[in-house]
Amino acid sequence: MIKYTGKGVYGAVAIGKVSVFKRQTASVEKVRITDPEAEKARVTAAKEKATEQLQAIYEKALAEVGEEEAAIFEVHMMMLEDEDYNDAINDMIDSELVNAEFAVASARDTYAAQFSAMDDSYFQARAADIKDISDRLLNCLADNGASSELAGDKMVVCSDDLAPSETVSLDKSKVLAFATAYGSSNSHTAILARNMNIPAVIGLGKEFLEGIADGQQICVDGYTGEVFVNPDEDTVARLTKKRDEDLEKKSRLKELIGKDNVTIDGTKINVFCNIGGPKDIPLVNENDGGGIGLFRSEFLYLENSDFPSEEQQFEAYKNVLESMKGKKVIIRTLDIGADKKVDYFNLDDEENPAMGIRAIRICLTRPEIFKTQLRALFRASVYGDLGIMFPMITSESEISEIMGFCDIIKAELDTHGIPYADNIELGIMIETPAAAVISDKLAPMVDFFSVGTNDLTQYTLACDRQNPKIERFVDTHHEAVLRLIEMAAKAAHDNGKWIGICGELGADTSLTERFLRMGIDELSVSPPSVLKVRDKVRSIDLSK
Amino acid sequence: MKQFEYTIKDPVGIHARPAGLLGKKAKEFEGTVVTIEKGDKSAAATKLMALMGLGVKCGDTVTIKIEGGDEDAAAAAIEAFLNENL
């Protein structure tokens, strides 16, 4: 048995047989020709065929992987049409009277080398694209069939690396796992493995490739990045057990889809999701989240080169509300500070950005920014069930000011006959000790609380979240933090309002029972955590 | 000839997809040549590989030169494209 270690890119375990991916590369020989026009015509014909193939691959990728991943094949088609690339091929045929294959291979090598030599990893990676399209062109010239087919049962596909078009072209039903010698965790192999939920390990090295042969037994552990070729009995037994437990756990969690977040004694809570942008919305539904408890609106500001306009924001919020089809969506107003680089805000450099002009403080000192966001939110509210949440609150006066702004927006919209929902919930984040301590005064002024445990812990323990040296002083389960949450929960319920947790502690299943006993009404967690939280909730009996 | 400078905001710089789309946009203006210059290197906007070969990164300032019958319209279109995509 030989063990190789690489990087696991998808957590799962596979036991099977090796299938060495055989690339169909046409061999390239330099041949003298006498009719350059005929040769150039061959190139044109091959190009057409290649473009057709790429179009098919693009559509397959679109359907099986996603728009972003499929886009690379559009780029491949553009590269195939590039003037310089085509000139290099055709000029060589004309001037050196060589066959099309040689000319294409030369162009491929020249451009691949050019890109590999660039000092940016993005551009270096484009060398792989040039090789991919050139090899495709060569295959078309040789009139080869499509790239290698996988025979027989599901196999572990082993390769040096897999070009984007190669991974997409594979018959997914025959692939048990991927194991490659090279590759990056953002390569197409990795992305495809994640989408297909199959184990994949990359970066196993040249020795791996040299040491394997078709039909050998192989175990792939996508969690640890270990690959065992010709594994001994103990290893097979151990990994079989690991695989079976992994599959059982995953299927158990899957069974929880559609089930209620209810305790044994019948207490129900909401389990929602925290997301950072519209592309995460599919994850909410895949993981059966009941709604969005925290939609971070910063992506609109961070992905822009200037303040996002009201229209831009309106479209984005409308889109989210419609995509969630009536499920609750709580959008947090902009939470940016001097520690998050957004140049066009022209924020001063601060000594203490965590305690400085950030979040609601920016909004209240620069009303134009605040009003634009509020107008967009109110206008979008008619498209779904919207809640708005305000971050970094410390006082009643802040809330009064915020409500004042909301009234102005409503009046403006009324004057122009622009509709907005009449049941928008307005809530605040409890993420400062101040807010927790005076939560009894704040609760009457708002519709809900949501606890931002990350910042609450930071401010309560006076510990900088970003400083690894201070970790030993940070007890994420510190009683002080839990008591502040409890205080806020009591204040909320005394005033008939609901309270949720959107910080990281919400997904900490060792605290779920404590939170439920406090009466927390909603936990908003990252999408992959929904089912594990539901599992925990369903195992708790508050009557005991 | 029209010319203007532009500072790249896209975190990846001038990458494949927008470069391809920029080329398509430039092609719309027949008879007008659009050139992108970075330092002492330049590339025609319609040449994908050459454009990518410039290695323009986020924060780089490039000079766009436009020459031809349609230069006013082209300049406006290219500038709008850059603002939206790069």
Protein traits:
heterodimer, A: 544 residues, alpha/beta, Glucose Oxidase, domain 1, Enzyme I, Chain A, domain 2, TIM Barrel, 3 domains, eight-stranded mixed sheet, eight-stranded parallel β-barrel, 21 helices, 47% helix, globular, B: 86 residues, alpha+beta, Histidine-containing Protein, Chain: A, four-stranded antiparallel sheet, 3 helices, 4 strands, 38% helix, 29% strand
Work out the radius of gyration of chain B.
11 Å
Average predicted local confidence, pLDDT of chain B: 87
Total discrete domains of chain A: 3
Structural class of chain B: alpha+beta
Please state roughly what percent of the residues of chain B sit in beta strands, choosing from under 5%, 5-15%, 15-25%, 25-35%, 35-45% or over 45%.
Answer: 25-35%
**CATH-defined fold name of chain B:** Histidine-containing Protein, Chain: A
Q: What number of domains of chain B?
A: 1
Q: Name the CATH class of the largest domain in chain A.
A: Alpha Beta
- Please summarize the sheet with the most strands of chain B: 4 strands, antiparallel
What is Rg of chain A? Answer: 29 Å
Q: In terms of per-residue confidence, which ranges of chain A show pLDDT below 50 for 5 or more consecutive residues?
A: none
Going across the biggest sheet of chain B, name each strand in turn.
1-4-2-3
